[in-house]
Amino acid sequence: MTGSSPSLSAERGRPAVLAFALLRGAVAAGLGVGSIAVLVLALWISSPTSDSSPGGALHAAAGLWLLAHGAELIRADTLSGVPAPVGLVPLLLAVVPVWLVHRAARDVLVPEEGRPVPSAAGAFAMVVTGYLLVGAAVAYYGRGGPLSADPLSLLFPAALVVAGAAAAGVWTAAGRPVGPPPSWAPVSLHEALARGRFREHAGTACRTAAAAVAVLLGGGALLVAVALMWHAHPAQESFGRLAGDWAGRVSVFLLALVLVPNAAVWGAAYGLGPGFALGTASTVTPLAFSGRPALPGFPLLAAMPAEGPGTVLNWSATAVPVAAGVTVAWFTVRRAAPPGAAREDAWSPRETALAAALAAVGCGAGTAVLAAAAGGALGTRALAEFGPVWWLTGAAALAWTALLGVPGALLLRAWRLREPGAATDEEGGVAGNPQPVPVPVSVSAHARGRAQVPAQEETLRASHGSDRRWWRWPGRRGGDDAAGAAPGSEPDTASAGALASRPAPAAAASTPVAPPAARPSVPDRDEGFEPYDFLPTDPWHERTARPEGAGPSGNS
């Protein structure tokens, strides 16, 4: 639906183009609200025990859409009668609105036939304005419902998330440029950005940091999956208590599905060491599960470790940050010292260590942002804190990747740029002091052919009798008349035989070419020399040497 857009002519001017960008932002917001509303209404219709009205289902859909942007919801229907906040954002659900606003801002700047392209600043402002207008209408509609949004959280972080996604879309449409820094920046920063080497190091650090964060999330997801399999029975019981009919089971399953990225971040925080909080009075780390946890009934929370001190199995979760540190070292050295690179082409140890350190900083910052987004409040009092502490998780990620990634990158660089060592070869010699290799003797093709002629002719005569070949190669297969020899010269078979019988190295036997200095000049060559001596003749000659493959006899 967002791919097709009305055509605008260049005569309509700037106001029409900005209005089109405003419309694209509003359409992106409407698609997000509509997709969630359709899903909620489908589950409400299919539930036989639902006691709410269609208006209540639409209010719940509006609240979920605002929650996906990071807004904090207020749940009024509680057992105690005191409104409780809900700030735990399902990260998988947040992908939908972020992708829609990013795509809207990107497509506005894509040139199309018959439609002028607005400026980057104008496209950003109009797309964000159109999106936020729809968001304000949805927030106003959700007032007084079961899940209403906190007004302050609509500004931060909800509006900030929309602006960031739109800015990323504009930057993508422009080709992801890295422009000059502002004028008030230090001169050293301007000079550094002007050098291509700095850009190369910065790009390597960003890619390495992204790879390290991905490894942390993958390791955290693996920890959660193993814990769920280990506690399969409690998770199944929790799932059955929450859902009585199949519509309820589908709802619980979808809720658990959109919380899977949150669980992966929690698992990464657990492997890093700081762990996560299960309320204000309980903390879960590899060393211990302490305090009195406030666990609501949910299948993912049934995978928690046993209370008390940690065991060896709990400590094995530290393999996740170790893998992230190794990733930092590996991805840095892939660019700093590629396999087979010369020492002068590789980065210096200072540059390698700096790139690995910058990647560790990026990994720590990315992990801190994800930890802040993956946690939140689920109520008051004991449930006011739920999830990892963002600054502790980010600091732990920085420490692990820096302490393992920087030395690992330096060691891997030194290993790839190492000189030939003193390894023992197969014959007992030393690789650093190899045995002397005999120098191949430069023998011309003409002399080698004359030396091999007698033995080959005798073999052919014994096997073929009186058959004679109808073709001859001068200098390579000289016949009885020695066509390859120079006029007036007799072949020195004794000296040629001695040269042919001399053992030559394996490398020189296949290509016996003389050094450039020892090659004779063109006037000094034998008159019987022909350039065809260097052509490969083995398969052809062997085929014609057989009686059935030979050409016509000499008598025909």
Number of strands: 8
The number of distinct helices, counting runs of at least 4 residues, comes to: 18
Share of residues in helices: 55-70%
Distance between the termini: 84 Å
- Rg over CA atoms, rounded to whole Å, is 39 Å
Task: Give average pLDDT, whole number.
Answer: 79
* Shape label: flat
Instruction: List unreliable stretches of 5+ residues.
Output: 4-11, 421-451, 462-525, 549-556
Strand line-up across the major sheet: 7-6-5-4-8
Indicate the proportion of strand residues: under 5%
Structure classification: mainly alpha
Brief overview:
The chain is built from 18 helices and eight strands.
Question: What can you see in these coordinates?
Answer:
This protein is mainly α and 556 residues long. 56% of the residues lie in helices and 4% in strands. The chain has 18 helices and eight strands. It has helices spanning 13-46, 54-68, 91-108, 120-141, 151-173, 187-194, 196-230, 232-242, 246-258, 260-272, 312-315, 319-336, 349-374, 390-416, 445-464, 493-501, 506-510, 538-545; strands at 73-75, 84-86, 147-149, 276-278, 282-284, 288-291, 308-309, 386-387. Strands 7-6-5-4-8 form a five-stranded antiparallel beta sheet. Strands 2-1-3 form a three-stranded antiparallel beta sheet. Helix 1 (13-46) crosses helix 2 (54-68), helix 7 runs antiparallel to helix 12 and helix 7 packs across helix 13. It starts with 12 loop residues before the first helix and ends in an 11-residue tail after the last helix. 31% of the residues are buried.
